[in-house]
Design goal:
The complex is a heterodimer.
Chain A lengths: L2 H21 L3 H29 L5 H31 L13
Chain B lengths: L1 H27 L3 H21 L3 H25 L14 H26 L12 H8 L4 H22 L3
Helix pairs in contact in B: 1-2, 2-3
The chains are: A mainly alpha, B mainly alpha.
GO cellular component, one term (chain A): NADH dehydrogenase complex
GO molecular function, one term (chain A): oxidoreductase activity, acting on NAD(P)H
InterPro entries (chain A): NADH_UbQ_OxRdtase_chain4L/K, NUOK/Mnh_C1-like
Chain lengths: ~100, ~170
């Protein structure tokens, strides 16, 4: 297997996630697209970790970093959904476009 | 050895195709609930790719944390914001924003694809060996002990923050 297979798959998923963040209006869907992006990064980390591990069998840094990213993603989704819930409670809609009070 | 790698390659391409289709459906689907369920397909595919990369512990954690916890959190979010259960035409930005978003995504993909193909040409994985869970735990609790402790503080802070934000009073 080539290293590039995994890297290109991750790049495709990352770009689909970026499109989702830019094109979606619904808050929950934007968070889902961010999950896609984080997963793409994780695939990269694990692929490089496996590549590195093949030369130095005691090194599992790639996996450890992927685990850290998973934990941070869990925290991010928790706080993000709490924010979305708060926006919904205050204005009965979770359209990101409607949250424009900072605009002059 | 060669036959095994062929099987791995076939598995990789099938799972990769499923993941890309699932991801495209997540960002284009008109039904909020279906988008969450397509996300399950992408996350499960990622877990399968980790197995192909011989990283057992990350694969299991992916299933437990993402498929188990985060998807349930998303479904709760969808229910608590009383989203329409059927198709909803009002999920996307207007046409021009979608075109700009698609343009940026294609541009990024071209850039990353070019640099990856140019940079890693046909670098092969050497001899992929199983990266044991015991090795991962040894690494976390020796080399990465401080980041691990910082991470637990972060999770605690996120927990308290989410409760403070979401409680009504």
């Amino acid at each position: 297997m080539f290293l590039n297979q995994f890297l290109l798959l991750a790049a495709i998923l990352f770009c689909i996630g970026v499109y989702g963040v830019l094109a979606r209006k619904n808050g929950v869907l934007v968070l889902m697209s961010i999950e896609l992006i984080l997963n793409a990064v994780n695939i990269n980390l694990v692929a490089f970790g496996a590549y590195w591990n093949a030369t130095d069998n005691t090194n599992v840094s790639g996996q450890v970093f992927a685990l850290f990213v998973i934990a941070v993603a869990a925290a991010e989704v928790g706080v993000g959904l709490a924010l979305v819930l708060l926006i919904y409670r205050n204005r009965q809609s979770i359209d990101i476009d409607d949250v424009d009070m900072l605009k002059g | 050895m060669f036959a095994l790698l062929v099987a791995q390659n076939i598995a990789f391409y099938i799972i990769a195709a499923l993941m890309v289709v699932g991801a495209l459906r997540v960002v284009t689907c008109k039904n909020l609930m279906h988008a969450a369920l397509w996300l399950v397909l992408v996350l499960a595919g990622a877990a399968a790719q980790y197995i192909l990369l011989a990283s057992e512990f990350v694969a299991i954690t992916q299933v437990l944390v993402y498929l188990g916890a985060i998807i349930v959190l998303f479904l709760f979010g969808i229910m608590l914001t009383r989203a329409k259960t059927g198709t909803d035409e009002d999920l996307d930005n207007k046409k021009s924003a979608k075109f700009i978003g698609g343009g940026i995504a294609v541009l990024l993909l071209g850039l990353m694809g070019y640099s990856l193909i140019d940079g890693f040409k046909d670098t092969e994985f050497g001899n992929l060996m199983v990266q044991r869970t015991a090795q991962v735990s040894d690494s976390i609790f020796s080399t990465y002990l401080l980041p691990f402790e910082v991470l637990s503080i972060l999770l605690l802070a996120a927990l308290i923050g989410a409760i403070v934000l979401a409680r009504r009073d």
